[in-house]
């Protein structure tokens, strides 16, 4: 390319000179086309011609690379190649002494090399302004270049491209509806006034993620205390989230992350975890729930007291003792617990209590209980242990257990109330003194020849006791005879009465029938006697 500084001055100078001096005729220089628009780097053909009635000298003054392509009488075709920018080449002709010229306006157009949206924040809070910014590098002619910011198909801002890079901004108030929206920037090169098209260059789309996290803390539901070795449920929930599915929940006890199951609803979530108390965690632990959404988080904390509370030990020296034995009962728990032993008045706030028990028959089956109390986080907890005391006694067959005198009517149903007591349970048998006949204990039906004096004997491994029982059976024979006689008499009487009645009735019928027969016979005789 020729140095641009000196050369354009020469045709100007010549033109000036030509204008001053009158030349042959009114010859004119013309060029075709007078205006050209072409993509950057392209070539253009220019036809310079002169209306000179002589042979004119033609020339093209330009800093661009020019090549003579064709020529004829008073015209010359030039090709300007690799046109990089706008320029105004000058076509001149010398007709005789007169020089005239014509200029061409060449406009170069090109598309921006890059159209880019500045990256969006990874997460945009709902209700806050989001500034979108787009840059376009290059592009010409600038007067025809416009930058447009778009949300989907919706135009947010349209501004002419100014500066390098050209910049356009727009502010949008982020809403829940913008979640997933695609933003783009479009550079428009409108060459329609120049007889060309509308060219568009679009940036890569950027997708926005908006979120809404209420300022309230998540709701943390958990027990206040947790026993070592037990498992409890912890629930952390939060409402009004958007988009709930993108939220994360972290539940931790101390520095131990909990395994969490999260269930999502339309705009809420609920996380559940099972927390197990371990011996290492004994004491106050911080239970924390964090809900993370976008680049924000909300936290809730609670204190969970992990405690260890083994049941107290209730010990009897012997589980099974003989009546009258002294039994030592000890109720023992770990330090910090307060124990209470049944039957012992509450006394010292101590982890140990004991008592000496004089085992009686009544104590057999006694439920001894040892209760330990522990205060955890202001809450009193109890753990109890019970043991049953077995006292060996008996056998016992007292008057009230086995009544001595019984009078039963014969043939009735009776029950001998006789019970022997003891541990182990004694075997009870009642035998008649005279013949050793066994009297069944319990239901007896019917009472017959059971009369007699019985010796009831209760036997257990701890000895034997006996008791006499007198059984009298009163006979019912006399009354029965009277009843039988009465019944027989009534039966005989009724038979006689019935028989008499039936006999009389039968006789009456016979007499009636005889009368009827006689009447009929006499009527027949009468009819035969009267002739027609
Ligand atoms: C050209 O035209 C001019 C005037 O129009 C005239 O004076 C001149 O003689 C012409 N020249 C020729 C060669 O015809
Ligand atoms: C150049 O212009 C002249 C005058 O208008 C014309 O006669 C000639 O044909 C043109 N050349 C071409 C190649 O179009
Ligand atoms: C979250 O992101 C926004 C925008 O990107 C920023 O202004 C804000 O400081 C961030 N907040 C936190 C807690 O990181
Ligand atoms: C968002 O920007 C608009 C102006 O563009 C302003 O009126 C409005 O108060 C801003 N809103 C917030 C929440 O910053
Ligand atoms: C945004 O673009 C992505 C991928 O190109 C598409 O899946 C999504 O549907 C678009 N979002 C909207 C709101 O059109
Ligand atoms: C710009 O758009 C035009 C057509 O509209 C296309 O030919 C050109 O390759 C695009 N340039 C870029 C950098 O995308
Ligand atoms: C969490 O649950 C998974 C599967 O349900 C199990 O493999 C893992 O051991 C659990 N982690 C803890 C710390 O309990
Ligand atoms: C235990 O009780 C029995 C009978 O009630 C009594 O004879 C005995 O003396 C008592 N022993 C003690 C040590 O109190
Ligand atoms: C109870 O007895 C068991 C087993 O003998 C023992 O390991 C435990 O420490 C005892 N508990 C108390 C509170 O003494
Ligand atoms: C344990 O004993 C305490 C007091 O002795 C009592 O209040 C509590 O109900 C008992 N608990 C059980 C499970 O028996
Ligand atoms: C049973 O009754 C008789 C008199 O009928 C009496 O002598 C005897 O003492 C009574 N026996 C008992 C154990 O009550």
Q: Could you explain the architecture of this structure?
A:
This protein has 5 domains: 106 residues, Immunoglobulin-like (Sandwich); 94 residues, Sandwich (Immunoglobulin-like); 88 residues, Immunoglobulin-like; 80 residues, Immunoglobulins (Immunoglobulin-like); 81 residues, Immunoglobulin-like, CATH 2.60.40. Helices cover 12% and strands 49% of the residues. The protein has 2 helices and 42 strands. The strands form 12 sheets. Strands 13, 14, 16, 17 and 18 form a 5-stranded antiparallel beta sheet that branches. The chain has a 5-stranded mixed beta sheet with strand order 21-28-27-23-24, with no helix packed on it. The N terminus and C terminus are likely disordered. The structure holds 2-acetamido-2-deoxy-beta-D-glucopyranose (NAG) (11 copies). The site of one 2-acetamido-2-deoxy-beta-D-glucopyranose has 6 residues, from loops. Keywords: Cell adhesion, Disulfide bond, Glycoprotein, Immunoglobulin domain, Membrane, Repeat, Signal, Transmembrane, Transmembrane helix, Ubl conjugation. This is Intercellular adhesion molecule 1. Belongs to the immunoglobulin superfamily. ICAM family. It is found in: Membrane.
In short, what is this structure?
With 532 residues, the protein is mainly beta.
């Amino acid at each position: 390319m020729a140095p641009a500084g000196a050369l354009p001055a020469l045709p100007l100078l010549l033109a000036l000179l030509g204008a001053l001096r009158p030349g042959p005729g009114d010859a004119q220089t013309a060029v075709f086309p007078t205006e050209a628009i072409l993509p950057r780097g392209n070539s253009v053909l220019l036809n310079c011609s002169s209306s000179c009635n002589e042979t004119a000298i033609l020339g093209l003054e330009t800093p661009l690379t020019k090549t003579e392509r064709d020529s004829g009488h008073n015209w010359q075709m030039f090709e300007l190649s690799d046109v990089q920018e706008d320029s105004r080449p000058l076509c001149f002709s010398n007709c005789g002494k007169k020089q005239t010229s014509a200029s061409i306006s060449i406009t170069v157009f090109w598309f921006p090399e890059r159209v880019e949206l500045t990256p969006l924040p990874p997460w945009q809070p709902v209700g806050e302004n989001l500034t979108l910014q787009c840059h376009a590098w290059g592009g010409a002619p600038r007067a025809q270049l416009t930058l447009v910011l778009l949300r989907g198909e919706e135009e947010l801002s349209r501004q002419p491209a100014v500066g390098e890079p050209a910049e356009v901004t727009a502010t949008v108030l982020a809403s829940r509806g913008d979640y997933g929206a695609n933003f783009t920037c479009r550079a428009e090169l409108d060459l329609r006034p120049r007889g060309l098209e509308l060219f568009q260059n679009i940036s890569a789309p950027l997708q926005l993620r908006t979120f809404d996290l209420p300022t309230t803390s998540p709701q943390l539901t958990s027990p206040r205390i947790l026993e070592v070795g037990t498992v409890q449920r912890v629930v952390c929930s939060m409402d009004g989230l958007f988009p709930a599915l993108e939220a994360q929940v972290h539940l931790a006890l101390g520095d131990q992350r909990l395994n969490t199951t999260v269930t999502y609803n339309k705009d809420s979530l609920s996380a559940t975890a099972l927390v197990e108390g371990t011996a290492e965690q004994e004491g106050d632990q911080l239970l924390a729930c964090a809900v993370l959404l976008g680049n924000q988080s909300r936290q809730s904390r609670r204190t969970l007291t992990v405690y260890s509370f083994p049941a107290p030990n209730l010990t009897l020296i012997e589980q099974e003792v003989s009546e009258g034995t002294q039994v030592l009962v000890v109720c023992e728990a770990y330090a910090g617990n307060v124990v209470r032993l049944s039957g012992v008045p509450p006394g010292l706030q101590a982890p140990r209590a004991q008592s000496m028990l004089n085992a009686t028959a009544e104590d057999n089956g006694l439920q001894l209980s040892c209760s330990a109390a522990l205060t955890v986080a202001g809450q009193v907890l109890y753990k109890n242990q019970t043991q049953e005391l077995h006292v060996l006694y008996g056998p016992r067959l007292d008057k009230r257990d086995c009544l001595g005198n019984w009078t039963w009517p014969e043939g009735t149903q009776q029950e001998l109330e006789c019970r022997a007591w003891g541990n182990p349970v004694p075997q009870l048998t009642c035998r008649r003194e005279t013949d050793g006949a066994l009297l069944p204990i319990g239901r007896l039906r019917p009472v017959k020849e059971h009369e007699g004096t019985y010796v009831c004997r209760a036997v257990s491994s701890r000895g034997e006791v006996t008791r006499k029982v007198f059984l009298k059976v009163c006979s019912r024979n006399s009354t029965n005879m009277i009843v039988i006689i009465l019944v027989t008499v009534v039966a005989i009487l009724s038979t006689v009465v019935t028989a008499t009645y039936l006999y009389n009735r039968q006789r009456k019928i016979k007499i009636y029938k005889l009368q009827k027969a006689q009447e009929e016979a006499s009527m027949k005789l009468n009819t035969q006697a009267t002739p027609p």
